[in-house]
Design a protein that fits this description.
Layout (H helix, E strand, L loop, with lengths): L13 E2 L5 E2 L4 E5 L2 E5 L1 H12 L11 H17 L3 H9 L9 H21 L27 E4 L9 E4 L4 H12 L4 E6 L9 E5 L5 E5 L2 E5 L4 E6 L10 H16 L5 E8 L5 E3 L14 E2 L6
Parallel strand pairs: 11-12
Antiparallel strand pairs: 1-2, 3-4, 5-6, 7-10, 8-9, 10-11, 12-13, 13-14
Helix pairs in contact: 1-3
Amino acid sequence: MKGVLRLDVKTINAEIPVDVHFQNEEQIIEVDQVKYARTDAEIDRVFLAWVNTKGGQFESKGRTDKIANYLLEVMGDLFGVENHVAKKIILYRGSSTQPNNRQKFDRILELALQRYANLRHMGFKGQTRRLADYMWQVPEERVYDSETHHIAQGKAHALLPFYELNAASNPEVQFAAYLEAHRETLDWWYKNGDNGKQHYAIRYENSAGQTALFYVDFVIRSKSGKIYLFDTKGTGGDIDPEVVNKHNALIDYIAAENAKGKNLHGGVIKVNKDGNWLYSPFKIDNADNLDNWTVFDVLNV
């Protein structure tokens, strides 16, 4: 693909709208009495607006976010570029002597999404996804869908502003509020995503005996240097049927990583009737029995 795309992002401009260009610098230009911000935030808006026009044959909820994340992940894998660079490459319209990247990506996505739609229509289940191991760190930036997320209180969140999922579960919302209320004890906290290589995933074996990935809900770094991996869960009928398998896999993962010198802690975490957040640092057989679970005291982490 390198032969047909322009990757020299140092000189790439993306258009908003026609004949109005912007780069990565913080500038304001005026055209026909209309002001256009030349910022990363503007690039994000143009990129998401473009992605939002794709995949109209699928349900709209979460579609833009998923397509954007997968596309940026592929760009990172193929060319080793960061998300903000990938967006500029994708949006580049070209010139009389340069390739029109956006036109090519229009066609690529059109073909890929149509092929996926055909496979779904045929009942194609796909091959088992290869679960690769990889190093994780908080992403430098993240694409959120404004239709499915809203800006919420989160001054200690690793990425600012903090965008919360509109359909976030009650335990997720409550735990985020708890962390934020005691943010002075933390370096940062991060609300993890639920797909894509940029998010923190743990391998586990589900009830059907299949190897799969689950994405912990929260990654937290305390001022003491400890890293906490928590998966918030509800109670009763709201509980995840795979909660025991996920928790036990997370405990095994933490033990293996700590043997390499890491300082990880965590597991499934639940709030009890007294408002305390409890988790077990050991494997469990029953996620409803909270006897001997440890209180996560954010004031002493």
